[in-house]
Amino acid sequence: MRVLVTGYNGQLGWDVVQQLEKRKVECRGVDLQDFDLLDGPAVKAYVREYRPDVIVHCAAYTAVDKAESEPQVCAAVNGDGTMNVVRAALSVGAKLVYISTDYVFSGKGEEPWKTDDPYDPQNVYGLSKVQGEIAVRSLMKRYFLLRISWLYGLHGNNFVRTMRRLGETRSEVRVVNDQIGSPTFSEDVARVICDLIPTEKFGIYHVTNEGYMSWADFARMIMEGSGIDCRVLPVPSSEYPTPARRPKNSRMSPDALKAAGIDPMPTVEDALDRFLKKLALEEFTAREAGQPLA
What confidence tens digit (pLDDT) does each residue in 261-276 have? Predict the structure, then answer.
């Protein structure tokens, strides 16, 4: 099996390549320096030269707030760019993994979103991911569509790193407590992707770590797990208005993943513990080598 991973320089793309290499699977990670997603002929030419059996499409426009001021760019990357990857995959008969988000839903209510719930995006980014999903679902049969949320990983900036950095310089931080979801370690999502791609279990999956909580709850876990003495003050989203409307309900049901017989995702607590241990080792190694910390 040969796998092409787009968005290699991102948190998830990086982890997917690491996981594939551990499993001795031939793979190649690509990013902007390799081809422009908006250049359809270039995407197809690259894919036809490499001839992968699977394309894991992690590359995306993810600047949620910035998207509100440049909707055409966001839609082009996540919609048109995905269509170009779909066409390239079809040209070589490759399976496709498409990474989507809970933002395709309304973010209302309290029930976990099911895979067949209707689309109702509330911001530009969510709409662009719906466009990407439709491109995949309308043209392909051999696809795995994974919706994820609240992602963090070792390769890149994220909420965990931000909270640790703030906690080390402040006595308290204010974090919203009325947005509920599942913080998710990118390494765990990468494992599920690598479990799925050798199979024919095509369809839509919600892939998040087990457990629901607010951002404030998660911030407390981060401080405690990092041994940082910083008080977390829960506040409503209204105190932190953002250009893009954020979903209050990011809960997603794991039922489809369980029905497929894929090993369940670890709990939020277990995932964060493993992340913090790996981060501590990374920081220790950097200090020993005299390198700046991320």
Answer: 999 999 999 999 999 9
Q: CA-to-CA distance for 147 and 224, rounded, in angstroms? A: 29
pLDDT band at 294 (very low <50, low <70, confident <90, very high): low
Digit-coded pLDDT (tens) for 2-11: 999 999 999 9
How do strand 172-176 and strand 203-206 relate by DSSP bridges? unpaired
Task: Return the SS3 of 120.
Answer: coil
d(CA 235, CA 104): 25
The rounded distance, in Å, linking the Cα atoms of 214 and 219 is 9
Structure token digits, residue 59: 């590359």
CA 241, CA 48: separation in Å to the nearest integer? Answer: 45
User: Which of 7-33 are b and which e, b meaning 16 or more Cβ less than 10 Å from the residue's Cβ?
Assistant: bbebbbbbbbbbbbeeeebebebbbee
Cβ–Cβ < 8 Å for 157, 258:
no
- What does the pLDDT look like over 112-142, one tens digit per residue? 999 999 999 999 999 999 999 999 999 999 9
Which residue out of 8, 61, 103, 125 is catalytically annotated?
A: 125
Q: What is the DSSP letter of 66?
A: H
Burial 215-236 (b: 16+ CB within 10 A, else e): bbbbbbbbbebbeeebebeebe
Active-site residue flag, 152: no
pTM: 0.95
